[in-house]
Every structure is written in structure tokens, then in C-alpha cells.
Amino acid sequence: GDSVTQTEGLVTLTEGLPVMLNCTYQSTYSPFLFWYVQHLNEAPKLLLKSFTDNKRPEHQGFHATLHKSSSSFHLQKSSAQLSDSALYYCALSRGGNYKYVFGAGTRLKVIA
Amino acid sequence: GPKVLQIPSHQIIDMGQMVTLNCDPVSNHLYFYWYKQILGQQMEFLVNFYNGKVMEKSKLFKDQFSVERPDGSYFTLKIQPTALEDSAVYFCASSLRWASAETLYFGSGTRLTVL
Question: From the list B4, B41, B103, which residue is nearest A43 (CB)?
Fold first, then answer.
């Protein structure tokens, strides 16, 4: 079946340094990939999602590129901010099976 | 942006009792979902619901679980009777369309503790 793997449970880094959160997936179809962010005591909300035409989605300085050859959709940002501290979920969805499959989540902690 | 409200935010009950988790989805959304997250683990799909019917359910959606949305009111998840392993955070979500690229809008979750 479909699966999403986020290898890092916790990433701690200093403000201003680049961010990269890993996400790989397995699916027998061509899924859509998503990144959701959940700040403390808030609901998970969409950060960005993959396009079908290989455009690179960007939002709030974050971007991710879908690499079908390596089944990856890593989340990146050039410079971390304190407000980026949150739980980040990678997820996939595919046609005919409209339920998201989530990764375990990566907690990003940005320190001054 | 659009908001999904979940009531209550916390619920503590004794094993064997019935519990109902309430969700007020985004007003014009037609598709509704429940996800379960055990502490420290990933969110897992339970069920989705459209036009008064369950469309899909996972193996986590036990016979003791039921969902409904009577007359366009709250979308509810009922567990009767509850078991210790039902302790988790339950997230409700809604979407406008039924499509693989569709954005889900989540509530903040209900933390259920079964004693």
C-alpha cells in the first residue's frame, strides 16, 4: 500500500540557517504530495502541495520539489525563523483513493 | 481562512461508556473525514463521509464506531462502547471536492482519554 516516510522526528537548528525536512514516499500510482504544518495548539494546515506540471510550489519562504525518480518531496527554506517552529507532516493522496496517508511528522525547533 | 471547529477539545471517560466527538466543518464543504493520532504516532485515516454515507473506512474504524451528520449539523464520531486503545487525538477534516489534489481543512483535534 501507499506509505510516507519522514526520517527525522526532531530537527533543531539556529535561526537563519537553512531548513531541509525529508519526505519520501511509496505508491504504485502517481500521487499528489502535500506538506501540512501544525503550530502548537492549532489545527494542521496546508503549507504547500505538488503540481502536476513540475512547477515548484512555494509558500511563506518554503518550497518543495517532487522528484518522481527518487520518490521524494523534501521541504526546504533558505533561512529559518523562530516562528517556523512547529510540527510538519508530509502526506500523499492519489486518484481513486481519496484519503491522505501521512508521515509520522517532523518537529522543527528553531532557536535564537 | 476556512475553519473547522471541534468540540470538545478534551474528553475523559471511563472504559465502556459512549462518547460523541463533534465537528463543525467549513460551511460549504461536502466531504468529511476523521483521523486518529495516538500520542507520538502519525495521523491515520479512519473514515470519510459524503451525502449521508460512509465512502471509505479503514480497519481502524471498528464496529463500535459510527459517523453521521444529521440535517447539516455537526459531523459526529460516536464510539460505543469505548476501549482503552481508543485513547488518542481525533482530527476532523473537510474538503470542498472529492479529488486527490484537494486541500483538507483540519480542526484542532479532540483529545480523548479512556480510563
Answer: B4
Cα–Cα distance measured from residue B21 to residue B88, given in angstroms and rounded to the nearest whole number: 12
Quick one: closest CA in A to B57, which residue? A99
Using an 8 Å CB-CB cutoff, list chain B residues near A101: 45
Do the Cβ atoms of B105 and A45 come within 8 Å? yes
CA dihedral A76, A78, A82, A87 (to 10 degrees): 0
Q: What is the reported pLDDT for B39?
A: 84
Bridge partners, B48 (sequence order): B33, B56
What 3-state DSSP class applies to B72?
helix
Place of cell 535561526: A15
CB of B65 closer than 8 Å to CB of B77 = yes
* CB proximity A24 to B under 8 Å: no
B45/A52 touch (CB, cutoff 8 Å), yes or no? no
Mean pLDDT by 10 residues, chain A (112 residues): 92 97 91 91 89 71 91 96 95 77 94 96
Secondary structure (H, E, C), chain A: CCEEECCCCEEEEECCCCEEECCEEECCCCCEEEEEEECCCCCCEEEEECCCCCCCCEECCEEECCECCCCECCEEECCCCHHHCEEEEEEEEECCEEEEEECCCEEEEEEC
Which pLDDT value is given to residue A14?
Answer: 97
